[in-house]
Structure formats: structure tokens, C-alpha cells
């Protein structure tokens, strides 16, 4: 058994290998529906990751900044999937969260442009993809496998990023037809996203 | 933008978005965004003729227009009065200082390379810097005579203009500029006086929040990293004392705080105030910063009760942050509807027709003599139009004058948002509005 300390300092015992979602379920089914991610000893993680030792945890909701960040981070990935649908061959740079939302740096295929006139179609596609509630799956792969994966995709940007990485193990996240190099954390599935608005577009190096 | 040189520097497209777990939250956000656009201080600043930026003068160098200057002057007057009550003394220092002064303070090392470059003089080797901070000058004022423990605390205040070369991409309206005026003060005190001084500065900040209707605020206490103590200047004992003083002062004042370990500057712990504006957006305003470094660098001393030399502690504090940033936040918070005591134009006199322009001028002059900020609208427009236009400009009081008013030496009073208030003699109106202003301020000082 491991001891899980909740923010109100109450301690619950669970089997080793419990997940964040299971902790939420043990408290209330409503919480389990609304929880977005979990902070384990100060580190924000996916709800599906196993907790193997005693820990202080906080279940993160929309009202928590870190919960919103998880939400927006997954939203960035879903937006990327929608953009890839309309512009196959697009390369993806970084997709972090900002104070109010998120962005993704993209490299469109030769001759293609994206303007704010395309926003509505992308937003519609995001919502359509969200309704399929595709699961967001984390996996750890070796640097060699990562290089292979993104060489196959022909994604020069990602290859550069991976080459610069020190870690032996590289984390990728996959949902539906979209895979990206990412440290996470992410939502359990894309079904949480019920509304999206693309707000602006800019050049970036 | 520069031409891309290689694949790594290739231009990418950055797509921004925001998403929500409920459609309703998105709708609320869009309303907020629309409202924020309307409250953009750059837009309102232009409409109300408060400030202006001219590329001929230079990027990030604000020009305060007459009405903006009044606004700023009122804020300064208000704070000066509060500070006087709390034992501050005003000082005035030049806008430049010898480069060696900033080498002593360490600011040259921090700002020298990336900021405005030193000014040369006809004298070979003589160099001055535009001041990036007011503290070195104030340290020199502290040093001009010997200080005893009985003289402390010394509280030195100055609305000091400083110059920092922000990158052009970072400049934004009045919130990021290259020249700005800090409502600066430095408190030189004994270590045992820190808590008392913190309590007093917090009181000043509360008075400001009250006078300007900031109801929603919190503070962050930044302490040192307890596992990395050698990173910080100053004795262990003093740090503990100072950190305890800040924490206790906040508790005594019932401040809503969060504490961040490792966020303190290397030279001392600090307390930052964050306010939420009318749209729920957070802004960082004033800071209270303890400093063990500058007293050391400048060799500041006082003679203690033991007749020995001691180092005073320095507190930097600026409740507004800077006049520029504060005015920007205030505009976005109030959408330009400033409280009566602060608003640049409190009264506009509207003559019904040209025939009453002289009388309107007389009324306006009389009010101005009584320290009420009044103007007249003598445009050749219908009275309805004049009322509408001036209400749009958020003028708190409109005084309509025609034949009846002219003959009886009265004015017809309209209050913004409340409409017709009936007629009054000019004297009683002056008294009435004067009382409203002093009541507003008295409420804040309470």
C-alpha cells in the first residue's frame, strides 16, 4: 500500500500503481469526470500514469492554472491534427501554452498559406475530432526510434529537436492520426474540448 | 524581419488559439475580449487626450498631454500627501550620474551593455549614464551627513524618472516604455525596524487601493532558497529577521499571500502586490524590496546606541510601480471613468447659445479659482449635442447655463449617469463638488 496525501492534508491508502483517475473516482464520480490532470509531489502528470510510492497529490481542474495548461496543451495537439488534415505534410515546431490559451508553430508545405479566413474550418474540424473522444496515449521510445519515426515523417524540425535532446528515452504522445514529440502532460482524451477559437496568426523563427 | 539564413531559422507560422470545456465559457471569454479592446489604454489615452507617442521624439518615450499631466499630477499630489503622513521626505536628484556611481552600485554591470550608452563630455574620459534607478543617488543623500540610530528610519521619496532601453518589440503603450517615472522611495532603517516599516508601507498601499477602487488584490512573498543560502548576500541572521518581518507584517494586515521559496533577489526578500482589474485580469503593481547589497556597496552606516558603526538595511518601495504603468492599469480598470478627485476635467460648462458664452466663462473661472477643474464647451452646437459629447468623455458634472441661470447667477447641474440635479448658485455648486472630492479622499485616508 502507498499513502496519498491530499491538499486538505488527509491521507488515503491505495494499492501501489494507482492512477490519478482512480484517486479521483475514489472521491467522487463527478470529480472523475472533471479532473484534467494531477500534480504529484509538485509535478503535473497525466491522469493515467501510475503512482508507485507515497506522494502528495492535487487533482487539477479547470479552475487550476495547471489544469487549464494541461487542457490547452492537448488543445494545441488537436489543432495540429486538424491543420495536418487540411495541409498534409505540414511540419510542427513547438506547441506550448500561454497566459490565455496556446499556440503551435507550423511549417506549411511549399506554396500553402494559412490565414484567419481558414480559422472557422479548422475550428470545426477540431470540434469534429474532439467528438470522437480520441484517447491521448503516452509512450516512451528510444532516441533511435524517435529519429526513425520523424525521418519517416520527413519532419526536419523535429529531427533537429530530437538530435539536441540529451535523454536516452523520449516521450511521444499520440491521438487519432497525430503523433508528436512531447513531454506532456495531457488530458485523458480529446472529448473534454467543447469549444475552441483560433485567435491570431503571426510569423515566428 | 531578417531573411532566413538556414533551415533552423526558417520562418514558421504561429497559430494562436484558446479552448474551453464548455461553450458558455468561450462566449464569456469573447465578451471579455471585446470589453478589453474597448478599454485598451492606448485607445482611451488617445480619445481622452492623455498621452501621445511621437516617432520623431523616439520609441517608448511617452509625451504627457495637458490632461494626462493633470491626471499624473493629481496622483503624485495624493501620494505625496499620504507619504508625508507616514514620515517621508521628498528629495530631487538629477537624471544622470557619473558612470562610477553605477559601477559602485552594480547597475552598470547590469544595465550598461544593453541599455542607453554612457554620455561623453568634452572632458576626455568623463562619462555619465542616464539613470536606470534612483537608488544610487539616494544612497549618496543618506551619506551626506553622519546618521545615528535615533535618526532612523530615514524615508526618502522622489518621483524619479529613469531610462531603460527596452527592446522595440517589447514596447507596449504605457506599460513598457523606455523612460518612466517611479513613485520611488528608499527607507534606511535598523534591522529591528523592518517589520514596522513593512506594516507602514502596506498601509500606504491599502490607502491607494481604496482611493482607486481596487478591491481584489493579493501579494506574493519571495523568500530565499533555504537549500542554497550561499547564493545570497547578507547575514543569515538578518535574512531570517527580514523574512520573518515580512511574513508577520502580512499576517497582521490580513493580506492574502502566497510564498515562493527561491524567488527572492540575491540582495533581499520582497513582497509584490498583484491586483485584479474590473475585467478580472491580473496586473503586477507595487513592490516592497529589502536590500542588504547597496548599503554594503555604498558603505552606509549609522552610529548605534553602543557607539559603534552599523549597517542600515534599505527598503525599496514603489506602490504604483511607475506612473506610466499605473495610469495604464487605471485606465483599463476604470475604462477612463476616473474618480472625481482624480479625473482631469471635473466640470464642463455648457452655454445654451453663444449669447451665454461670457457667463459660462465666468462660471468656469470662478470654479477654477476654487481649485475645481472646469472647462467650457462653447462650440456652436445644439445643447443636446454638447451634453451627449461631454457625457461620452466621462465628464462627471455638466453645468448648463442660459438666460435664467445667467440672470440668477446659478447653474443647472447634470451628474454623469444620474441626469438632472436641479439648479444651484455657483457658490453652492463649488462647495458641493469640493465636499464630494474631500469626502472621497477622506474615505481613502481612513
Sketch the major β-sheet of chain A: 5 strands, mixed
Report the mean per-residue pLDDT of chain A as an integer. 91
Q: Report helical residue fraction of chain A.
A: 25-40%
CATH topology of the largest domain in chain A: Threonyl-tRNA Synthetase, Chain A, domain 2
Helix/strand order of chain A:
EEEHHEEEEHEEEHEHHEEE
CATH architecture term of the largest domain in chain B: 2-Layer Sandwich
Structural class of chain B: alpha+beta
% residues in beta strands of chain B:
15-25%
User: Could you state the CATH homologous superfamily of the largest domain in chain B?
Assistant: Bira Bifunctional Protein, Domain 2
CATH-defined superfamily of the largest domain in chain A: Threonyl-trna Synthetase, Chain A, domain 2
CATH C-level class of the largest domain in chain B = Alpha Beta
Strand order of the largest sheet of chain B: 4-8-9-16-13-12-10-11
Describe the secondary-structure layout.
The complex is a heterodimer of chains A (205) and B (446).
Chain A: E1 2-5, E2 11-14, E3 18-19, H1 20-27, H2 29-34, E4 37-40, E5 43-45, E6 50-51, E7 55-60, H3 65-86, E8 91-92, E9 97-98, E10 101-107, H4 119-131, E11 137-142, H5 143-153, H6 156-164, E12 169-175, E13 178-181, E14 195-204
Parallel strand pairs in A: 1-7
Antiparallel strand pairs in A: 1-2, 3-6, 4-5, 4-7, 8-10, 9-10, 11-12, 12-13
Helix pairs in contact in A: 3-4, 5-6
Chain B: E1 12-20, H1 23-38, H2 41-47, E2 51-52, E3 63-64, H3 66-85, E4 89-90, E5 96-98, H4 99-105, H5 107-111, E6 119-120, E7 127-130, H6 135-143, E8 154-163, E9 179-189, H7 194-211, E10 216-223, H8 236-252, E11 257-261, E12 270-276, E13 282-291, H9 293-297, E14 302-303, E15 309-310, E16 313-318, H10 323-334, E17 347-351, H11 357-369, E18 374-376, H12 383-392, E19 397-401, H13 403-408, E20 410-415, E21 419-425, H14 426-445
Parallel strand pairs in B: 4-8, 10-11, 17-18, 17-19
Antiparallel strand pairs in B: 2-3, 5-7, 6-7, 8-9, 9-16, 10-12, 12-13, 13-16, 14-15, 19-20, 20-21
Helix pairs in contact in B: 2-10, 7-8, 7-14
Amino acid at each position: 500500500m502507498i499513502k496519498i496525501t491530499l491538499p486538505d492534508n488527509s491521507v488515503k491508502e491505495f494499492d501501489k500503481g494507482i492512477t490519478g483517475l482512480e484517486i479521483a473516482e475514489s472521491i467522487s464520480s463527478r470529480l472523475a469526470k472533471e479532473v484534467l490532470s494531477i500534480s504529484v509531489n509538485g509535478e503535473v502528470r497525466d491522469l493515467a500514469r501510475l503512482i508507485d510510492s507515497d506522494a502528495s497529490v492535487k487533482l487539477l481542474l479547470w479552475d487550476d492554472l495547471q489544469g487549464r495548461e494541461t487542457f490547452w496543451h492537448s488543445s494545441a495537439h488537436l489543432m495540429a491534427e486538424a491543420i495536418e488534415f487540411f495541409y498534409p505534410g505540414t511540419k510542427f515546431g513547438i506547441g506550448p501554452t500561454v497566459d490565455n490559451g496556446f499556440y503551435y508553430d507550423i511549417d506549411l508545405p511549399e506554396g500553402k498559406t494559412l490565414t484567419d479566413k481558414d480559422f472557422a474550418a479548422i475550428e470545426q474540424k477540431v470540434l469534429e475530432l474532439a467528438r470522437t473522444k480520441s484517447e491521448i496515449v503516452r509512450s516512451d521510445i528510444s532516441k533511435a526510434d524517435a529519429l526513425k519515426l520523424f525521418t519517416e515523417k520527413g519532419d526536419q524540425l523535429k529531427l533537429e529537436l530530437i538530435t539536441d535532446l540529451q535523454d536516452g528515452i523520449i516521450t511521444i504522445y499520440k491521438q487519432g492520426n497525430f503523433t508528436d514529440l512531447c513531454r506532456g502532460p495531457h488530458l485523458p482524451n480529446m472529448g473534454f474540448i467543447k469549444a475552441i477559437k483560433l485567435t491570431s496568426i503571426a510569423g515566428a523563427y | 524581419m531578417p531573411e532566413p539564413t538556414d533551415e533552423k531559422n526558417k520562418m514558421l507560422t504561429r497559430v494562436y488559439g484558446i479552448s474551453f470545456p464548455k461553450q458558455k465559457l468561450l462566449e464569456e471569454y469573447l465578451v471579455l475580449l471585446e470589453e478589453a479592446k474597448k478599454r485598451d489604454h492606448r485607445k482611451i489615452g488617445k480619445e481622452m487626450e492623455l498621452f501621445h507617442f511621437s516617432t520623431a521624439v523616439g520609441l517608448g518615450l511617452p509625451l504627457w498631454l495637458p490632461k494626462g499631466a493633470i491626471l499624473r499630477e493629481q496622483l503624485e499630489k495624493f501620494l505625496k500627501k499620504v507619504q508625508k503622513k507616514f514620515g517621508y521626505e521628498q528629495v530631487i536628484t538629477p537624471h544622470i550620474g557619473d558612470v562610477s556611481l553605477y559601477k559602485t552600485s552594480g547597475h552598470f554591470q547590469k544595465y550598461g551593455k544593453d541599455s542607453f550608452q554612457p554620455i561623453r563630455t568634452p572632458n576626455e574620459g568623463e562619462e555619465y549614464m542616464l539613470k536606470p534607478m534612483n537608488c544610487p543617488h539616494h544612497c549618496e543623500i543618506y551619506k551626506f551627513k553622519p546618521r545615528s540610530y535615533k535618526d532612523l528610519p530615514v524615508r526618502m521619496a522622489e518621483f524619479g524618472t529613469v531610462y531603460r532601453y527596452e527592446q522595440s518589440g517589447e514596447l507596449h503603450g504605457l506599460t513598457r516604455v523606455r523612460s518612466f517615472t517611479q513613485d520611488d522611495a528608499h527607507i534606511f532603517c535598523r534591522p529591528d525596524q523592518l517589520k514596522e516599516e513593512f506594516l507602514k508601507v502596506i498601509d500606504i498601499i491599502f490607502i491607494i487601493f481604496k482611493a482607486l477602487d481596487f478591491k481584489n488584490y493579493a501579494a506574493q512573498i519571495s523568500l530565499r532558497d533555504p537549500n542554497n543560502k550561499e547564493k545570497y548576500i547578507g547575514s543569515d541572521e538578518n535574512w531570517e529577521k527580514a523574512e520573518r518581518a515580512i511574513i508577520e507584517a502580512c499576517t497582521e494586515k490580513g493580506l492574502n499571500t502566497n510564498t515562493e521559496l527561491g524567488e527572492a533577489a540575491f540582495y533581499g526578500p520582497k513582497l509584490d502586490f498583484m491586483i485584479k482589474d474590473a475585467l478580472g485580469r491580473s496586473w503586477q503593481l507595487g513592490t516592497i524590496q529589502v536590500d542588504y547589497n547597496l548599503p554594503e556597496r555604498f558603505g552606509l552606516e549609522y552610529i548605534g546606541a553602543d557607539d559603534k558603526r552599523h549597517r542600515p538595511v534599505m527598503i525599496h518601495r514603489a506602490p504604483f510601480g511607475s506612473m506610466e504603468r499605473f495610469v495604464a492599469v487605471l485606465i483599463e480598470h476604470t475604462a477612463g471613468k476616473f474618480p472625481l478627485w482624480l479625473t482631469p476635467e471635473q466640470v464642463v460648462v455648457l452655454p445654451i447659445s453663444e449669447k451665454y458664452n461670457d457667463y459660462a466663462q465666468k462660471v468656469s473661472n470662478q470654479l477654477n479659482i476654487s481649485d475645481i477643474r472646469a472647462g467650457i464647451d462653447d462650440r456652436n452646437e445644439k445643447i443636446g449635442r454638447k451634453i451627449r459629447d461631454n457625457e461620452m468623455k466621462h465628464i462627471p458634472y455638466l453645468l448648463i447655463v442660459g438666460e435664467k441661470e445667467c440672470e440668477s447667477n446659478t447653474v443647472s447641474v447634470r451628474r454623469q449617469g444620474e441626469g438632472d440635479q436641479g439648479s444651484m448658485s455657483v457658490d453652492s455648486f463649488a462647495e458641493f463638488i469640493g465636499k464630494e472630492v474631500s469626502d472621497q479622499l477622506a474615505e481613502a485616508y481612513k
